[in-house]
Automatic annotation (TrEMBL):
Gene3D superfamilies: 3.40.630.30
Protein name per its UniProtKB record: GNAT family protein
UniProt keyword annotation of Endoplasmic reticulum present: no
Domain of life: Bacteria
Entry annotated with the keyword Transferase: yes
Length: 173
């Protein structure tokens, strides 16, 4: 199988219908990302305000061979201005999952954050049962730090999460 050319770019207006399905449709979000119904226009309003590139959260389109496939997001974290870091996440359309696109997109996002912000740490987390995302994070250079108990409430129950990080000083492939 030929590997698709993966890139990131700001979310375009033409991406918004597919983006909306990825955050509002239980069939599109997938098992680990559906947290119930919320305001379906919240992201469109944020896009109109600042293109989904606000002060504390950046959302980029994941593009494979020129086609919108989903998005990656980075949220600024940290209680002190001198100890900030990013927490990242990803959401891909069901038809492109399992092809390595998520691994490469997360690697590209980490590279972007280290190139354009002074933070030393980027972290990601996922549910303990989301083995595919754990593999993707490890392939993207993240180190598993441990399990955090009862950090996510989804589908009527509290779920454990696995925390991963990559540091600016870590060797990168």
């Amino acid at each position: 199988m030929n590997q698709a050319k993966i890139s990131l770019r700001p979310i375009a207006e033409a991406d918004l219908p597919a983006f909306s399905r990825l955050v509002n449709d239980p069939e599109e979000t997938g098992e680990f990302q559906w947290f119930g119904w919320r305001d379906p226009e919240r992201f469109r309003r944020r896009w109109a305000e600042h293109g989904l590139l606000g002060d504390d959260q950046w959302i980029f389109a994941v593009v494979a061979d020129g086609e919108f496939c989903g998005f990656v997001a980075a949220r600024r974290k940290g209680a002190l201005p001198t100890a900030q870091y990013w927490n990242i996440g990803i959401q891909l359309m069901p038809r492109v999952r399992g092809r390595g696109i998520g691994t490469e997109a997360q690697r590209l996002l980490v590279d972007y954050l280290f190139a354009h912000t002074p933070v030393v740490r980027v972290e990601a987390d996922t549910e303990v049962d989301n083995i595919a995302e754990q593999r993707a994070l490890e392939k993207a250079g993240f180190t598993r730090e441990g399990v955090r108990r009862a950090v996510t409430f989804r589908a009527g129950q509290w779920r454990d999460g696995v925390l991963y990080s990559v540091l600016r000083t870590d060797p990168r492939s």
